[in-house]
Every structure is written in C-alpha cells, then in structure tokens.
Amino acid sequence: MFAYLVRRIAYGFVTVLGVLMLLFVLFFAIADPDDIARKAVGERASAEVYEQWKKNHGYDKPLIVNTDHGAAEFARYTDTLFFDHYRRMLTFDFGRSDADDSPIAGRILAGAVPSLSLTVPLFVIGLGVGVFFALLVAFFRDTYVDRSVLVLCMLAMSIASLIYIIGGQYLIGMLLRWFPISGFDPDPTVAYRFLALPVLIGVVSGFGADVRLYRTVFLEETNRDYVRTARAKGCGDIRVMTAHVLRNALIPILTNVVLAIPFLFTGALLLESFFGIPGLGSLTVEAIHGNDFSTLRTMVYIGALLFILGQILTDVSYTLADPRVRLR
Amino acid sequence: MSKPLLEMQNVSVTFPSGAGRVAVVDEISFSLDEGEVLALVGESGCGKTMAALALMRLIPKPGRAEKTSRITFDGKDVMAASVDDMRALRGYDLSMIFQDPMTCLNPVVRVGDQVVEAIRLHESVSYGAARKRTIELFERVGIPDAEQRFSTYPHLLSGGLKQRVMISMAVATKPRLLIADEPTTALDVTVQAQILELLRELQRDLGTTILLITHDFAVVNELADRVAVMYAGKMVEKGTRYELLKMPRHPYTEGLLGAIPHAAQRGHELNEIEGVVPPPALWPAGCRFTNRCPKAFEPCEGTLPPRIETSGTGVAWCHALAKASGR
Amino acid sequence: NNPYPNEGGETRVFYSSFAEAPRTLDPAVAYTTSAHVITANVFDTLLEYHYLKRPYELIPALAENVPEPREMADGRVSLLFRLRDGVSFQRDRAFELNGEGIDTRIVTAQDFAFQIARLADPAVNSPVFENFASITGLRAFRTLLSERRSGDTDFAALRADQQYMALGGVPGVLVNGDNELEIILDQPNPQILYWFAMPFTTPVPWEAVAYYDGNEGRDRFADHPVGTGPYALTVYDKQFRFVLERNALWYGAQSEHRDAPGAAFPALSDISDEDIASGRIEPAYAGRALPFLERIEFRRERESIPRFNKLLQGYYDDGGVIKESFDAVVENDDLSPEMAELGMRLDKVVEPGVYYIGFNMDDDVVGRAAGDRSRKLRQAMSLVVDVGQYLEIFLNGRGVPAHSPLPPGLFGYDPDYRNPYRSVDVDRARSLLAEAGYPGGIDLETNAPLKLTFDTGDTSAQGRLRYQFFVSAWRTLGIDVEIAATNYNKFQEKVRSGAYQIFFWGWIADYPDPENFLFLLESASARSATEGPNTANFMDARYDELFAAMENRANDTRRIEIIRELTGILETERPWIELFHPEAYTLRHSWLLNAKPMGLSYPVFKYRDIDPDLRAERRLAWNKPLMWPLYAFILFIVAATLPAIRTLYRERT
Amino acid sequence: MNKHDTLLLRTEGLSTWFPIRRGLLRKTVGHVRAADGVNIKIRRGETLALVGESGCGKTTVGKTILRLVEATSGRAFYDDVDLMALEPGAFHDYRRRLQIIMQDPASSLDPRMTVRDSIGEGLRAFGMVSDDEDLTRQVAELMQLVSLDSDTMHRYPHEFSGGQRQRICIARALAPEPELIVCDEAVSALDVSIQAQILNLLERLQAERNLTYLFITHDLGVVRYFADRVAVMYLGRIVEDGPAERIFSEPRHPYTRALLASAPSIDPEHRGVEPAALGDVPSPARPPSGCHYHPRCPVRLGRCDRDVPPEVNFADGMSRCFLSEEQES
Amino acid sequence: MPWISNIAVLVLVALGFLGWRTIRRNRLWSEALRALWRRRRISLVIIAVYVVIALLDSIAWVGGTVSGDVSDAVAAFKPRSIIDRIIAPEAFKELSYSAPFAEAGFYDDAPLNHPGAHVLGTDILGQDVLYRALKGVRVALLIGGLTSLIVIPIALAFGVAAGYFGGRIDDVVFFVMSTLASVPSLLLLIALIMVLGIGTVQVCVALGVTGWVGFCRLSRGETLKLREADYVQAARALGVSHAGIILRHILPNLAHLIVITFALQFTGLVLAETILSYLGIGLDGSWGQMIDQARDELSRDPIVWWNLAAASCALFTLVLCVNLCADAMRDILDPRTRREEQ
Ligand SMILES: Nc1ncnc2c1ncn2[C@@H]1O[C@H](COP(=O)(O)OP(=O)(O)OP(=O)(O)O)[C@@H](O)[C@H]1O
Ligand SMILES: Nc1ncnc2c1ncn2[C@@H]1O[C@H](COP(=O)(O)OP(=O)(O)OP(=O)(O)O)[C@@H](O)[C@H]1O
Ligand SMILES: [Mg+2]
Ligand SMILES: [Mg+2]
C-alpha cells in the first residue's frame, strides 16, 4: 500500500512535469512574452518600464538556451524561461498577475475560501440529491417514477447552464425573493443566504447527468447475484438498498466524485461570476477577460495538480471502499 | 407421514418476450417430505433455478410466478403471504445456496458479517453472540482458521471456502428447507467431494429437508432420495434415485444418462441426443422433447404428454410410454 | 434576501457596486473611471470642481486659492499655490518609516513636488506625462532620471524620493517653505489648472511609496492609496468589495478649515432652483460641514442584470440604467410610472465625450495616400451611418448625435452646427462613391469589389452586434467591410504596426476644454509617429497650425472662430465619422440625497447623504418573499409521488 | 497400438512464470509458476489428457506450446524442432499445424464477425484460399464437417447455441488442417447432451484425419472415455502420467488417487464418495514448499515439505512422489 | 474560402455514403441502425434535418442576385450558401427587434419591411432570428462533429497502438494522455483558445486537443482488454498478423464505444460552447453567442424572449436528440441486452 502510494505519487509528479511542459509550450512558446508585456505596460510606456515589467514578471530571459552564458556553462540552460518556469511552479512561486501586478498566490488563497464555500455544499448536496434520486429510481425501476425521472434527467442535461443561471436568478431572486440575487459574505452565519441560490441552481443543472449515471450504477448493482442472496436471507428492500447495493455502488460513484474534487477548488466559473462570489472561478473569468496569462497559467496548473491529487485519492479511496482492489 | 413439508402445484414462471409471456417453468408440481432430499435435474436453462426462486418469491423483475401456482410450505400459502411474512420466512425456514458462490457473496462486506446478518435478521441476538455462532458454524462446515476467516473478504477465499460460507449462511438459522442450487458445479472435484460430504452430514445431523438442484447425475446419486427431471420448463419424470438412474423411463432421461461418458463406453460412440434445447420462446407446443426425441411419433407434437405412473414411486410424462403401457 | 445581513439599513452607509477592480489606484497612473471612484475620494487635490455649478467651475481645495497665471519676464508662466495649513495624511502604518508609533504626518509642499516628479518618472509609467510636459524641465528631468538610473547603480538603489532629491527635483516645481508651491510653465497653458483638480497632482507621502513596494507581504502602492481625502480605503478586496470609511483626519473636519470651499456644502445661493425642484439637492444641507456618509460599500457585481435587480430591490442606492432594463425604467425619456412609484429618480447628463469611427489615414485605401479618392470614400461612408438608429438600438437613445468632436457644454460647441456629412443621405453617398471610383462598391481599377476591414479587440457577442450595425450600413452602399475581431492583444499589435483600416473608439475628456478633444487629431499626437492618441494618424498642416493657435488661447471669440475652422477641416477630410456624445442615465433611490451627477469628474461622496430610515422601510416593503410557489411545488411533488407509494403499498400486501 | 508410434510433441522442462510485480519500481518480487518444468510427450494420432484442478496451469501449458504466452524456459520439440526457439516468422508455419479450441466457446468468437469470417480467418491468414468464393466453399465444407448448417455462415456468434458455437470453434481450428489440436476444456462449458455430440465429433475427426489431441479437462469421466494417455497436473507440475487405463486402475500419485476417489459415480449401486484430499487447492502464487501436494496429502512423509520429489519413471509413465520412488526400488 | 467548405461537404457526403454502404453490408451495424430507427425515429429525423441544414449552409458559391430590391455588390461578389440564398438576410431584415409574426417593430411600433414574415422575430439588428438559428446549426455541427471526425482517427490510432503493443509506445501515449487529461478540460480549452486566438480553426484545434484524450484513453483501455480476449488469442493462433487483428478484431469491437462516446462528447462540446461564448471566446454565429446576447434581452420590458428561445430550443433539441440516440445506441449495442433479446 505504501509502496503503491509512493509510486502513484511519483507518477503524479512526472505528470505534473508534463503539465508544466504543456503550459510552457502554451504560455511561453505560443504566446509571446513580449506581447504580454506590451499589453500590460501599455503602448506609451518607455523601454525602461517595459524591461522592468518583464523582469518583475519573469519574462525577461531567453526561452530555452541562454546564449549570454558560455557554451559549457550550466547557467546556459538554467538561466532561461524554461528552467524558471519549472522552478517557480514547482516551488509554488506563482509571481505576479500580468494584469495588475498583484501576487497570484495571495489571490488564490483568498479565492479558495469563497470557492470552497460554494462548491463544497454544491458538491455534497448534489451528491446527496443525486444518490437519493438514483436510489429512488433504482427502487422504483420500470415504473412511471423511473421513466419520468429519466426523461427529466435527459431534459435537464440538454439545457445550457447559462440558462439555468439566468432563469434561476430571475425566478427565485427577483420574482420570489427568497434569497439575495447575488453577493457573498465570508461570515459563515450569513453566507448561507448567498450560497443557497447558486447551490440550488448548481444542483439542478448537474442533477440530470448525475442521476443518470448513478441510476445506471445502481441498476447494475441491483441485478447482481449478491443482492438476491441478501433477499434470500430475508433482508427488506431498504436494507438491501442501503446496506448492500449502496456500498457496492460507492465504488463507481467514487471515481466520478473524487475526480470532481479539483473543481471544488477551481470553482464554478459561471456560478461565481453571476453570483458575485469572489472565488477562483471568478478569478479565472477575470483572467480571461483581462488577458492575464500568468493567473490563467497558475489556475490551469493548480487545477491539474488537484486533479492529479484527486486521482491518487480516487485510487486510495478505492481500497477503502472496495476490499477487492489491492494496491500494489 | 402426514402432510409434506413443501408442496408445489402447477407452478409456472413466465417472462415477457416478443409475443406475450413465455412460461420458462410450466405447471410443474412436486412435493417434499420433512427430512427428504429431492433432486431437481435438467440441462442448463430448463428452469430449475426459476422453480426454486418461485418458491422463495425472488423471481427477477420482468418475470413472475403465475396466479395458478400453488405453493404450500408447512401449511402456509407462500403465494399469498405478505411481503413481511415472506421476509420472515426467507432465510429462517427457507434458505437457499445459490449457484455461483463467486458472485453471490457481497464483495465489500466481510464474510463473517454476512453470516451474522443472516442470523440477526431473524433472531434478536447480540452481535457478539451472532459472531460466536458464526465462528462455530464456520468450524462446523470445515473452514480452517474460522476466527480469522470471519473478517476476510470474499475475494480472498477460494471457491470451496466461499461455498462453505454460503452454506453456513444458509444453515445458520437451522432452516427447515434448504434449497441448494448447483452447490458444487463451480468447484474442483476434490472439493466437491468435501462439500457433498458436508451436505450429507448437515442433512443427517439437522434433519434438514433439501431441494437439490443440479445437472450432474453423479451428484444426484450422491445425495438425493428422490429425483425430478425437468426438460424445457416441464417436468418429464420423477422417481426415486435408484429407479431413475437404473431404469429411466422417459426418453430424455435415458438420453441424458446415455450421454454421460464413462469408462464402459470407451471406444463406442456416445449416445448423443440429437439437436439442442431451443430457446424458451420456441419450445414446442406438445411434448417439448418432441423434436429431439428418438421415439417421437405423431401425437407428441400437438398434445401434452400424459402422466404415466411408471412404478409406485415413479411418474413420467410421455406419449411413447403411454403407448407402450397401452393407454 | 437581504445581501447585507450583518448591517441594518439604518446606518449612513452608501451601497454601490463595481464590475471590475481597477488595475491601479496609484494617483499618478490611475486614469479610469473605476479607479477615480476611489481615488477621487481618498486623495484631495489642490483644486476641485464646484459640486453644483455648471459649466464647471474650479474652487480651491488643498490650495487656499485658485492661482492666477503670472507671466514672467522670460515669457514663462508661474502658478503659485498657497497650501492649507495643518493638513495631514490619513493614518497609515507607512508613516512608521519616520519613527515608531507615528502613523500620520502633516502634508508639505514637498509631497506635491514629489508626486509631480513621479509623473515624470518613467518607472511610474504615468499616462498623463505629456499633459504636464509644459512644466519647465519636466521632460529633461525624465531623461536625466532614466540616464542616471541606467548609468549609476548606487543611484538606482536609492529610494525614489531620494533619487528625485539628488537630481534637485523638477526645475519647474518650486517648493517655497512648507506652504507654497510654485509651478513654472514653459508657455501659457490655461488648461493645466484643470489637471490640478485631478488626483494626478495629489500630495503623496514618500513613505507610502517606499513602504508599499509589494514585498514581504506588504501591499503595492497601487493597491494601497494613502491620501488626505475625506475617505480612506479600509477594505480593498478586488474580488469582492471595497470599503471607504470616513477619514477622521480630513482637513475639513478640523475647525480651522471647516469653512473651506471644499469642506462645506455649497451655500443656498449656489443651489439652483432646478436642482431643488428636481429633488436632486436638499436645500437644508446648504453650508453644512462635509462629509455626511459614514461609509461607502462597493460590492463586486460582474454581471449587470443582478446588479440592476438588486438596485430595484433597494440594495444599491444608485446605479446606471442598464440598457437591458431601460424600457422598464424609462418611458418617453422620463421615469416610467412603475419606477416613479418606487420613488426613484432619474438623472440624465451628457458626458463630455465622443464616440467615433476612425479611419487609419496611413492606410493606402482609406487614408491620405489615395488622396481625393479616399476622401470621397470616407465622406460616402460617413453619409450612411445613421447614428440616431444606432443610439436607438444599442443605447436606447442615450446619447446626442455628434457632428464634430466637441460635446455639448464645452466651449466652442455650436448646437446649431450640422455636419453635412453626418446626416444620412444614401443617394449622395452613392454618387460620392462613384466619384471616388467605387461605383456600387466595385473598384473600377481592378473591377473587384472594394474590401475594407473593421478592426476591433472586442470579441464579445454584444460587441460584434455593434460592429455589424455599421457594416450593414456600409453594405447598403455595396461596400464590403469585414469585421476583424481579434483578442485585445492582437488588436493592439495591429495598431502598433499600423495594420488597420477602420476602428471604433471613444474619448472621454479629462477636463472641459475643446483642446482636450481637438488634440486627438493633431499630427503631434499621431499614433504612427509619436504613439500618441491620434489613432487615425490624421496629419494636416493647416489643422496643426490652427490647433497651435487655439490650444493655449483663452476663451475668446477668436478661439471660437479657430475651432470652427478646425471642425471645418474635419468636416470634409473625415478622418472620423463622429457618432455620438454619450449620455449617462442614473437611477437613484429617494433616500439618496444630494447626488448630482458630475458628468466630468468623479463621484464626490462627501456631498452625498442617505436617509437610512426611509431606506430600511422601503427595503423591507419591497422584499417580502413570495412563498406560495414553494408550497405549490411541495404539493406537486407529494402528489407526484403518491401513486408510487400506492404501488409500493400494493406490492407489499 | 502402433498408430501411436511417432512422437509428435515433446516438452522438456517447459515453464511459464507470470511475474508478480510489486513495489515502487514494479519490481518483480515473485512469480506465479503457472507451468513449472512440464514434461509431456504426445505421439501422433494420440489423445493426451491433461487433467488437474482449476488453476493448476493446464491452459497455460496449452497456450505456451502454441506460443500464445511466451515460455520462461524449457523447450518444446515438435517433430524435433524446438518451437520455443523459433523466430516469430518461422513459427508462423507451425501455427498452421498447431491449433487450439478455447475453453469458453462464447468468448472465443469475435461477436462482430460472421461465422464465415471467423472460420475463414485462418484460411486467409495462411493463404489457403484463392478468392472469396473459394473461401465460402471451404467454410461450407468445414461447417458440414462439424455438422453445422452451412447456410448459417453469415450469421453472428450470438445467434448460435453453446454447442453450435463450440462446433464453430472446432471448425475454425480445423480450417488450416492442423496436426495437433489443443482442446482446452472443449466440453466443460456444455451440457451433457451437447458434450456427447462434441466428443463424438472429435472422435470422428481424429479417426478421419489422424489428429492428435492435447485434451485439457478436469472431468475424469470424459478422460476415461476419451483419452489414450493421461497427465495429471498439480500446481504447475505434472505429478503423474501414463496410459489412461493404468492411471484409472492403478494410480500411483496420492493426488491422482484423491482425484479418482472424489469423482462421484452415477451408478446407483455405488454411493458415497469419501473426500480423499484435505482442504483447498492452494494458490499457485504461493505454492507450498517441497511437494506442492503435501499439505493435502493423507500419506505425506516427513520430508515432503522440504524436498521436491523427483520424477520417477516407470515403464508405463511417471510419478512425482517419494512413495513412488520407494515403490520403484 | 468557399471551396474549402465545399470540398469538405463533398468529402463528408462521400464519406457518409461510404459509411452507409459499409454499414449496409455489415449485418450487425445495419441491424443496430434499424433498431435505432425503430426506437428513435423522431430524433433521427431531427438530426438528419440538422445535418442537411448544416450541409446546405456549407455549400456556397459566388454569384447570383439577392432577392428583393437590394442591389448589393457585396452579396454578388461574396460566396453565399444555399441557406443564405433561400433566406437572403440582406433583404430580409428590419431595423431592430420585432416579435415573432409581428406586424410592427418592437419599440417604435413602426411598420416592418416584412410584416408577419419573421417566424421567430428579429434580433437587435433586425436580422431574422430563424435565419440566425439556422446558421448556428452549422457552427454547432462543426464544433462537435467535424472536430471529432478529425480527432477520432488520430486518437484511435494512438490509443489502439498503445493498448495493443504496449511497451514504450504505451508509455509515451499514456504519459501524454495523462498529462492532457490531468488539466481540467474547460480550463485547458480556455487556455488554448486564449493563447491561440479566437476563430473557428483555433477553437476546433483547442477542442481537438482536449477531446483527443477521451477517445484515446477509451480506445487504449478497451484495446488492453480486447488484446487479452479469447477470440483475439484465437486469431493469433490462426496466424493472423497484428495489422489483421487490429483491423478485423480490435477496431470493430471498439466501434460501438466510439460511436456512443462521440455522441456524448458531441453534446458536451455543443454545451461547452455556450460557456465559451459567455467568456467571450466562442465561435461566431453560434447559438452560444445568441444565448449570451440574450442575457441582456431578458430583463427588457417587455421581455425579448424569442432570441434566447430560438437558440436554446435549437441547441436543446439537437442535444436531446443526440443524447436520446446515444442512449438507445448504448442499449442496442450492449452485448448483454443484445444477448437477452435473442
Ligand atoms: N431475466 C430473465 N429474462 C428472460 N428470461 C429469463 C430470465 N432469467 C431466466 N430466463 C429464462 O428462464 C429459463 C430458465 O432459467 P433458469 O435459470 O431457471 O435455468 P436453470 O435450469 O437454472 O439453468 P442453469 O443450469 O443454467 O442454471 C432460461 O431458459 C432463461 O432463458
Ligand atoms: N496472464 C497471466 N498473468 C498472471 N497470471 C496468470 C495469467 N494467466 C494465468 N495465470 C495464473 O496461472 C495459473 C494457472 O492458470 P491456467 O489458466 O493455466 O489454469 P487452468 O488449469 O487452465 O485452470 P482452469 O481449469 O480454471 O481453466 C492461475 O493461477 C492463473 O491465475
Ligand atoms: Mg440455474
Ligand atoms: Mg483453463
């Protein structure tokens, strides 16, 4: 188990290196640092400012080979954007935003809490609702409940999330006035008011896909032989569903769920921007609008890191949920 | 003897198919006395498991037992029992060992707990007590290191051990009727012998009634008192073990026994039954064995074969026999 | 549904919103409206605009007087500011650089000089350097600074203020003791006084610049303004909210300055009847000491719909009328009855700005190289753009069609002037086009259709529609204009390399003088030559000559004549198709008092006030949640599950 | 029995070990010795039954000979050519002569290929057909050979019953006209009545074409009926081999004895098999030391758990047991 | 560049025809298709209509006159698609908004140029909404369909090679794959588009890069399984070459998965485009852009709903139909359900 974990993490690390390579190609080779600098300091800035800016943001070195150093010198390869990029990303030194010079790490830390306070409830409630409905549907399979929920899921899946948000805000925020239309408060005793609506909308828009997936999983499990064994033992429906089916269905659900964890951090782009939640999703949207490459780069990197971590977690949680999987 | 413990009368199980419902078990009847071992034999797909599931009221969803079926267990009408009554019955008076021990145990629950669950569903005993009983049971069915095995997971057990766990789960509440659905099919011969021995012992010690389902006449020979042979959802012959194995009357039973290779036949062609069992929807209308029967003649095709008493204890359903016996 | 659950509505807090955080709050750099909302309240300036008087009038603020330009012997001009005594900076830990436990400091003339020097500092990268370039020696100071920095590492390591000191400061900025600041200009520049009413020349403590360097967890100065103004920025969370809180050390709060023009509400005599009649200004406030609001809360609201909806619910105190809900709010150019019922007020003000379509005059097809041919093409294209329709469609008529770059309310604006090329005349356009050699859009020389490109850095769906509007107008002439929407970077790149033909741009004035518009077309500010704001690269000798004559002239009739002549050149040359002068509609609640819109300058919160009780009452009344749909929904769910439960029940027995 | 005089296949110490990888670098920490020094001999035209319990490595031996899994060590001489040493290209020729019928007829047919294509695959691969029509003709012949209706050749496997599918597999194996067919539990998945059909078919084909079978099974009844010689396998090792009659009448290895004793009979006169072996089959990944069978062996000796018993050759076969050693001497 | 799209149409039609013929020949597939037709007739018809519209919109040529009284040099010299020619948007427009079937403008109540003719009303520029919705079809199919058509073969090649041969190839492919897969796809998509710039080609490339992984992973995993399948071993025993095995056994057995994944990915992409549009990096003329524009229209008074409704319905219908078909296909092609049917 331990060895497995170490190996898994080592591989994760290699993947991180790969992701960094990808980012390098994207943000340094394809997007020209000179362009970014020009854009940031403005047209009329003096060469001095321009160079200073590039220096501050770490864009001032040659891409891969630094010819300032002699052919033999090690620095020829270390004093470059490529090396710097790796060094800084791996040490979590994200530098400053291209758009407004603020330190990215700080903004990400600041954005994490609001993002989490939106996505964690969204995730938990979404999971709960999804599993509950899926159980219900699996229980009532081949009845009108099953069919109507299935149709509902299909419909729900086919609607763009933008429409959910606009519609939900208008209906619940404006017409029914149950919750504030948008806003946020870091104080948890009141934050729930702000989060209720986005969470509700998020749950509804994710509902379709989730329920359908879980339903398939549950139906698959209810057809297994061990369920029959449990019934033959004299288990009631509810016990069969909860004590036997649910525990087995947990495994495929886990994959789905644990992989969603990075999105908890990177936030929900649309929800955050529409509901004025100052989270990481909002930060990303802003980076896109502001052509803030360094922030976007960092967000992609963090997203990938968390994703890799999530995958490792999935594998580990497999062992916890499923004794058959032995990690070696 | 007074009343039989179990009586199945005209039990039919149907599944929906393209055109209406197809009976995969068609009006079969048999009964079981207390302490007796009845073997239900037949080739794959002939409806043995479904018949047993009908008794447990566990037929999988689109299928159902038809209203005409009458099942009486210990004087109770099983078909009319409420869900709760049924639940109380299942696993307590009626238990079942399923065909494939590999998939019938819940893979994520420790095997001991699965047995404990079976006990605690029916008896209000503490977990500790149930656990103790489970370990005793494990020892009883010959699971070595019972204490340790209690908390392993099914995938860590070999087939034979899994089957033993299944058996201990089934007999945990000392059921009056044990249905053993192909209890040894998935096992190696040496282990099969051990399991057969175990079942024999249990039956002897606890006086359990056993409905043994198998397609292996050798297993029948080892365990059964009486035998019922099914073909394509229909009962074709019933009789005592000796009768049936020694002098089968129905052409199908004859064919089956003849098809089993053994030393004696070496060098000779095996006595094969022509053709294959058709899928349920294509079962012939009259005698279902018609199209494969070497003795088939014209009434076989259209009319249901009559019931012929072949001896005091044996019956068969066959036109040819009827003709031979002059009816 | 109250978005401010922790606060009752009863405090004097003003609630507003922001869409995007400003990039910088450094007063030397901040040049956007979104930044000025903060900087104008955090930083005091030497001069201010009178809150109520129109046309705009300068009043002294940190200066005790509005200086009279004094011509010096050598032809240079001197401006002498006498500074108010005992003005101190807001409390800030930056001042600890001066010693333990000190958190404020008296403002001296040196702080002003420091800031003016910063404007010249290339490292600060101030966008308005050129506007102050008439100060004697400012340009030389800039060059010197940059030379010394690159040449002398010891010098470069010094603090900015020490560097300026070492160079002896800007020669044209003279500090006479603590309380006198003299600015020497190379030539007369009457407009420069307006620049002293902007935060660019606010006093800036060197401590703040030195301390807030962004290192070791300290903010950057751009995010941490330290000023003397009536409010101090106490919360600055760019993602979420800003809070301005009353600055107890503001000079207006000190007894000796209580009557200063910038420290008290204007006298009754200065309040126009119209302002009173429209309910904009509460006469009872006349002469009262400023400010009134305790706190100003800005919440982030990226999307306009939620912002507007919250305004309607009473959770923002004022807000622009978004286009999207215009019809709900405005009817027949006035407040709709529904809104009036809510007690809302609508303020309209034409902003001193202009939106235009520009042609790149360096271009071979539309520019000067093609001579008369391109002139006729530009004229023809100008003749088919129906700006009235544009305003109607995209801005709900919120704008005044432009005939020249000059917006209404400015000196030299002639309300009767009608640009002959700015009213739609398709026939004339057709014939002009034919004269230009492109009859029906076909280039006679090549016999191929004329193809032009409309370059933009706006890729949004909304933006695209706007461009589409013009394109279809030109299409009626048969001219094929393609929209080249790239991201902003690429667009900038195109502008830099001159690879653009037609663009859409706007200009909002820095100060109310025609010069501030007409300079957009002088050769000296041509983009291709000097990287200036003349993106059309319009270069016309006669224009330049006239412009030079007009630029620094006092507002007399000759100036009007020159302006006429200048606009006359533009009229025929058509480097621009002037579109419109934007008009801002502001919607505000009845409890918001004294909010007179200032088209030019920046919201000055010190004059505004709130009636918190009224607000609390209204909010409560407007936000009763509607619960019956919830009950209906629950009922529906129950009804829908009933049959399922019945089936279940049946199955069990 | 002079039809069995030429040796067709002889393996020498054929071993197939599947690595068990563990740890940080997926280092191989051990092996599943699925086949461990297997020596078998098959004469032309003979049926050698390889019997043993599930998981003991029977399939592995079969596949190794066909090089569907690569052998770890050992040699397999086919007509005195070492198959294991051949280059893949050179082995291609031998593929034609060696065929396999897989354990499970359902999964060994490509569900998306018509029966015609499945059967014809080998013909195509070995260049034994000239054109499409030729293929159809040959496939039809093959199908008739295994008593299948050749009109059904354009159907897909799922449209056939288990017995028919097994026939298709047989036809496919017959197509390249092989000399040796490995029948991996060719009848185990079938019902008795079908099993009889298939066994009869195999018997007939052997007679007609002088085929040689390596017949892998665990069903002793079938072996007794069908095989000429028997090799008994236990956890990767052959523990006994010899002529079928001798094995059944006079088993030498205790495991063989247990196997025979455990097989229930259908003779109603004889009832009550006694379990002759103790406990369960151990895992081949962690086989017991010494003689693999010792923990279950009722007659084990003191050294059985330490030393690996040698192959003791008799005139009529071999046994791997210390007791046999004594017997011999 | 009308010829590119015209050639693309030709190629697509040819491919479609070839595909159709192969399917017709193959009983399993033609049966599956027939079953699909039986179960999802409406959906299939709708999808076909969408495809036809997209194709009609892709065939363009220069010349011809614009109907109506607009003498338009631009139109005459610009390639116009069949849809453009049928609807002639240059002539068929109003000043600004008008409601469906309206006789007069939305704001000014001025009479329309084409009263009652705009079935779905007009948008802010007076363009016919139906026309715009129809134009969106092509973009949507381009996003989901064309990208996948290009990406799938590549992904398949890598995935199958990696799964089948294993070893170094597998290591490399797996590494590239897991690297790409570990970047959340929406973020990667955004980053790619930001860096590459906005435009149909760029967006398709970005979608390709992100979509590649899914197919590749699927085909690799499945190939790993298939490689061990008994029938593949049997084929090896029969002397079939690696190429033969891949072509005749692996690919056909992957096909159904690819088809289903394609359908699901397709809908995912079309929906994702709305998010891209919201972020300002969407494709021109897409439904996403229409929806994004409609953000502003919803709070107008009276509400301007037809633009949003048209785009949403068009999107919704397509996604739903494809989803329904994918679902049905999954059942049809699932060997388990198939076997039970027999
Ligand atoms: N879920 C189902 N849907 C339709 N038909 C079914 C279903 N389950 C079983 N059947 C049919 O019922 C018939 C009897 O099945 P059953 O499992 O009772 O056979 P069996 O005699 O137990 O066979 P085996 O020896 O293979 O266990 C089979 O022919 C099968 O086709
Ligand atoms: N590819 C493989 N990798 C690792 N282990 C394997 C592999 N193939 C087989 N084994 C192991 O080798 C052992 C022998 O397997 P094999 O399939 O040869 O047994 P068998 O005698 O044919 O069994 P059965 O009667 O169940 O078919 C088993 O324990 C199996 O787990
Ligand atoms: Mg069964
Ligand atoms: Mg095997």
* Low-confidence blocks of residues of chain D: none
Largest sheet of chain D: 8 strands, mixed
Oligomer: heteropentamer
Overall helicity of chain D = 25-40%
* Residues in β-strands, percent of chain D: 15-25%
Query: Number of DSSP strands of chain D?
Result: 13
**CA-based gyration radius of chain E:** 23 Å
Mean pLDDT of chain E: 83
- Ligand catalogue: adenosine-5'-triphosphate, magnesium ion
Mean pLDDT of chain D: 87
What is the count of helical runs of chain D?
10
Separation, N- and C-terminal Cα atoms of chain D = 29 Å
Query: What CATH architecture of the largest domain in chain E do you see?
Result: Orthogonal Bundle
CATH class of the largest domain in chain E: Mainly Alpha
* Unreliable residue runs of chain E: 338-342
Quick summary:
Chain A has 328 residues and is mainly α. Chain A has helices at 2-30, 33-41, 47-56, 75-78, 81-90, 104-139, 144-157, 161-175, 188-222, 225-233, 237-258, 261-266, 269-275, 280-289, 293-321. Helices cover 75% and strands 0% of the residues of chain A.
What's the SSE blueprint?
The complex is a heteropentamer of chains A (328), B (327), C (653), D (329) and E (342).
Chain B: E1 6-16, E2 21-32, E3 37-41, H1 48-56, E4 64-65, E5 70-73, E6 76-77, H2 83-89, E7 94-97, H3 101-104, H4 111-120, H5 127-140, H6 146-149, H7 159-171, E8 177-181, H8 189-206, E9 209-214, H9 217-223, E10 226-231, E11 234-240, H10 241-246, H11 251-259, H12 298-302, E12 307-309, E13 315-317, H13 319-324
Helix pairs in contact in B: 4-5, 4-7, 5-7
Chain D: E1 7-22, E2 27-38, E3 41-43, E4 47-51, H1 58-65, E5 73-78, E6 81-82, H2 88-97, E7 98-101, H3 115-125, H4 132-145, H5 162-174, E8 180-184, H6 192-209, E9 212-217, H7 220-226, E10 229-234, E11 237-243, H8 244-249, H9 254-262, E12 312-314, E13 317-319, H10 322-328
Parallel strand pairs in D: 4-9, 4-10, 7-8, 8-9
Antiparallel strand pairs in D: 1-2, 1-3, 1-5, 5-6, 10-11, 11-13, 12-13
Chain E: H1 2-25, H2 27-39, H3 41-58, E1 60-61, H4 73-77, E2 80-81, H5 82-87, H6 129-165, H7 167-181, H8 185-196, H9 200-227, H10 230-237, H11 242-278, H12 287-297, H13 306-333, H14 335-341
Helix pairs in contact in E: 2-13, 3-6, 3-13, 6-7, 6-9, 6-11, 6-13, 7-9, 8-9, 9-11, 10-11, 11-12, 11-13, 12-13
Residues 58-59, 103, 184-185 of chain D line the site of one magnesium ion.
